[in-house]
Amino acid sequence: MTESIEIADPRTEPEPFGWSDFRVRRRLHAVWDYALLTLEAWAARNPPLLVVVRDGARIVAGAAVLVCTPRLRRAYASVPRRGRRPVAPVWAEVYQPWLSGFPGVVFADGLDDDARAAVLRRLERALARYLGVATLGVFYRSVDADLARALGGRGRIVRQVDTVSVLHNTFTSREDWLAALSKSRRMSVKRALKEVEGWVGRGQVVVRLGPARTDLDGGEVADLINRHRLERGIPALDVRSPLLSSYFHSFVRRSDVITLTYRDSEERLLAVNTLLDHPQCLVKQHWAARSLADGGLRNLLFDAYARAVDQLVGKGVAELSAGRRPHDLKETLGFAGKPVYGVVVPRPVMGR
Q: Which domain of life is it from (predicted)?
């Protein structure tokens, strides 16, 4: 078979042939859709590329790769120019930035660890050629233990960097989930749910949940989520850029995205939570809420977790992933920590 690698910039280049079929066949989460990658890329300081590895005509792997530069003056990346390579230092991050705790590379069925390792070495060599002499190296974020072993080797740095919180579905109902919590947490969650139920009953809060939400304005969703991120503090090593209203306008209208919203009696958006639907792993993704000083309400977060569990149980999905921090809170809600690793590959050993 003839092996080939295609590197596509979503801002200027069409979707790689066969990618949509591969994404559907591998049941990838919504954020892997090329149309969403395009909307994300135009607003990014460090825009993603989609790298597709083929064995003949068959796609054997795909990777979301952010081309990262130091934080200088630009809020967005330079205008893309075909064939132009970076002259300032850059590094590549194999990273799916809006899928916390999941790797930025996916594989076809049937590839063992050795085959995956060989694919990734070819991918690294292709990235080195594409980015040129300014390339500092590759950083793989949020890989699991098996992929970390495949990526290991001389000159490569492999470290556990965090854990991702996962709730395994062993429940038949919300009550079954509550019964599995500690007594103190069970009582506090029940009080929170009762309080939210009271607000809803009195018309103080309106709760809506469902896929393909056409009633939402992408601007207000983007505003609340981006403001929430800023208020919580963005880590220095976070290479993600704020997502724009155009992204969320398209995102919440997808059939594989479930959106939960809370509004007050004046229709102000109090909180929003997006869930990525999936037959094996439901992902509790974006969460944002108004601060108490801005008219927000306590306990909406616990209600959102309870409704996510309802989705988990109702759909019969194996697990619910809720990203990373705060681990302590999620542990009290029954989530277990799954280790995730980071792998640094300096330029001299890329592809080796």
A: Bacteria
Conformational region of residue 264, where left means phi above 0, alpha means psi within -120 to 50, and beta covers everything else: beta
Which has the closest alpha carbon to 261: 271, 251, 252, 253? 271
pLDDT digits (tens, 9 = 90+) for 15-40: 999 999 999 999 999 999 999 999 99
Task: Tell the CATH superfamily of the 170-317 domain.
Answer: Gcn5-related N-acetyltransferase (GNAT) (3.40.630.30)
Count CA atoms within 13 Å of residue 275 on its CB side. Answer: 26
Domains 3-162+340-349 and 170-317 are alike in CATH topology: yes
- Read off the pLDDT of residues 240-279 as tens digits, 9 standing for 90 and up: 788 899 999 999 999 999 999 999 999 999 999 999 999 9
**Degrees to nearest 5, angle at CA 79 with 75 and 85:** 110
Task: At 220, list the tokens.
Answer: 């207000």
Burial of 2 (0-12, 13-18, 19+ CB in 10 A): exposed
d(CA 80, CA 191): 53
Other CB atoms within 10 A of residue 78 CB = 11
Q: How far is CA 204 from the centre of its chain?
A: 32
Q: How far is CA 189 from the centre of its chain?
A: 27
CATH class of the domain whose range is 3-162+340-349: alpha beta
Using alpha carbons, select from 160, 140, 48 the residue that is nearest to residue 345: 140
pLDDT band at 79 (very low <50, low <70, confident <90, very high): low
What average pLDDT does range 49-76 have in this prediction?
85
Domain ranges for the chain, please list them. 3-162+340-349, 170-317
DSSP at 155: T
Cβ distance 116 to 147 under 8 Å?
yes
How far CA 111 is from CA of 46, 59, 61, 106, 251, in Å, comes to 30, 12, 10, 11, 31
Distance of alpha carbon 95 from alpha carbon 28, whole angstroms = 14
3-class DSSP state for residue 200? Answer: helix
